[in-house]
User: Fold these one by one.
Assistant:
Number 1:
Amino acid sequence: MLSIAERHKYILDSLNKYGFVRITDVANELGVTKVTIRKDVKILEGKGLLYKVHGSARPANPHVADLDVHVKDTMNRDAKRLIARRAIEMVEDDDSIIVASGSTIYAFAEEIKARTWRHLNIVTPFLRLGVLLNEADHVNVVQLGGCVHKKSLSVLGEETGRSLDDCICSKLFFGVDGIDPEHGITTSTIDEAKLTRKMMKAASRNIVLADSSKFGQRGFGRICSLEDVDAIVTDGGISEQMAAMIEEAGVDLVIVR
């Protein structure tokens, strides 16, 4: 029988390795009751060493705030650039795509601008992207209208969604604030979640661009379940356990290094 200290070390080591642990799994692995592990988790949470969430534990609070896009631009920049360079390979000449908003999406837009296209149609709610790609040759930008969300510099609302009724696109590329096996794909506002679902309906294939820090996180607005997206492009910081769970959901997981 393991001591309390040994159980605590096992839980914290598992968190460091996988990014989260389930109380049921730890109880089975250690041969103790779930009540025992719940008590252990409560003690560790009281010491500020983890965060307990409905039958599981995580190394930090998974709930994310709505950050300004300029703040997001400074975070995980190398990973976002790698993701953008891989995602651009999914775009074909003469494609018609929807490109959402966010810092990873802006890195993706910079890759679009750097390439030579025969013709490309892009539909976007992202004002920064519209300005950037307006300068690109053979790239036709359809800028959606609506109420400007100042933190994201993107338009939102019913008017924005109605504009998508006339669009039929091959792919949607969008960023997120959280990817969680239990709560699915999330973003920081309900309005953005609603618009993203509308964009998903206008596209044949839905592709998430997200650096590995987004896994295990939860935004306020739920976009969809994991099974509703076709592919996720991320960096090598994703844990093996999380990667396995994403692939088990039938999602094409592309990891760049």
Number 2:
Amino acid sequence: MPIESVVPDGVKLEGLLENVGSLCWGAADILRAYARGEKPPYGFPAVLNVNDGVDGPVSAADLAVNQWLLDGLNSYYPTTDWTLLSEETAKEQLIEGASVDTEWLWILDPLDGTKDFLQGTGDYAVHLALVKGSKTVLGVVLIPEADELWFGVRGLGAWLENRSGEKKSVSFSDRKSFSELILVASRNHRDDRLEKLLGSLNLAGTKSIGSVGCKVATILRGETDFYISLSGRSAPKDWDMAAPEAVLSAAGGMFTHADGIPLKYNTGDIRQAGCLVASHGFLHPEICQKVLKEINFIDPTFLV
């Protein structure tokens, strides 16, 4: 994809990355303050409220970071022809079965891994992804507790920045034999079907991590090699997957359905249902083939 096509007309990519980075570090300060029971910056309320409703835990931290990101992007780009969609605003913005009528769409998750945030594990992240049509062109994953800010731009690659602006390259592992692979899986969203699938793969090891962004970061650092998302009672949504998928894909990895079909966004269905596989890319077809075979044996009715 030509570099000039990853941002709308009138937007300079370098400036956009700088502005988004600044917003992300502000979001990190907000979340870390809430996580420690301290007064958050920028005038946000000090009390952490938790509402465990049908959509899961929602905290004041979600809402604060959501406002911070939306206000920030609107302030930096008041007239740019794109639409901002976040997990916290989706109910008001989306019409069931209809895509958002825009060529350029930001998909934001102000706090991915809310349960981990509340449990104090540190495995939570902030996701920002820019989508053109139905495909990601830019992704940003912030991991506040690790002071990690991952960027990925289609056609330019992916990299890691710290608060000082120092950059590091992606470091995929060199494990290329299936029996050597290490899998990263969900800590909180597991069911018997997923447990059976993981047990059938005969891997070198597994890690359990919260946020999807944190999971994908373990692949980018070379700590693990692939991740499986298997829909249970509910499916992950566009905002769970878009930014991590964008960064991993820009780095040269792969993030697809188990049958190899790429992920798409803004399709009128925000669910990323089925069996999704993310990997460093070296054995992606082999991983998908093996996962498909096992899931078809475990549950022949499951739609990947």
Number 3:
Amino acid sequence: MRILANDGLDRVAIDAFEERNFEVVTEHYEKDRLIKEIKDFDVLIVRSATKVDRELIDVAKGTRLKLVIRAGVGLDNIDVDYAKDNGIDVTNTPLASSDSVAELVLGHMLALARFIAISNVTMRQGAWNKKLYKGVELAGKTLGIIGFGRIGRALARKAGALGMKIVYFDKFVKENHEYKYLELEDLLKEADFISLHTPATGKPLIGKEEIQLMKDGVFIINAARGGVLDEAAILEALNTDKIAGVGLDVFENEPKPNPELLNHPKVSCTPHIGAATKEAQRRIGEEIRDIVLNLDEDIRKVTV
């Protein structure tokens, strides 16, 4: 079996594959070369950097490529339906990064609530703005989680341990014995902090109208997908103090986000690193290892 890990792969998976004499290529191929090479691989492993679009799928269909694995949760960089329609299976690793993303969200919440992000900048510039940085505590505040899958639930557990009240909205999960479900409009009105954990929506889930429903001085965190927040509306609300702070790990235009947003004093930002922990990458590698070895077993059964 030949495996192309186009955006890298943890050693735990590489070692497991090489023990079985699989060929593993971890060199990153830009699109032109990927189109030329893809037909000679059985498995393509990608993160968010590689786009598996119709052009690539048209080249790969009918060749030895059997499976595309997204080393992460979101599948918006892969045309899943088109791939499957052309005989190429697609899967992801949904179990691995829940805790790492949830912890990053908490990091942004603390960075904003206690001015950690901006004071780190101003102190390096020689300023001592002690009187300006009067923050708020997380304990006793209401956290509204939009999207209550694995990451949303992991965040709820961690934030609850800090004394936050948890409410959530999810189109598909309306009953949970531990946490209170609210319709989206009610959540937006009630929450002091809002964290988004939804797939790519095609259009902003939170825009000017939704922001107007929120409390004055709300904090918003997006570690889901760029585009679920209307960044222009967010900037306007930051400048009018409707929003007290925004934490962003994902952006509309990656890897070159809007500089006005990145440099805003009320924004805490990171470069899409939600799953970038050693532990999460190891777990992703373990999930990928199991997926590919199961595929190998299936192939052997068919061959026999």
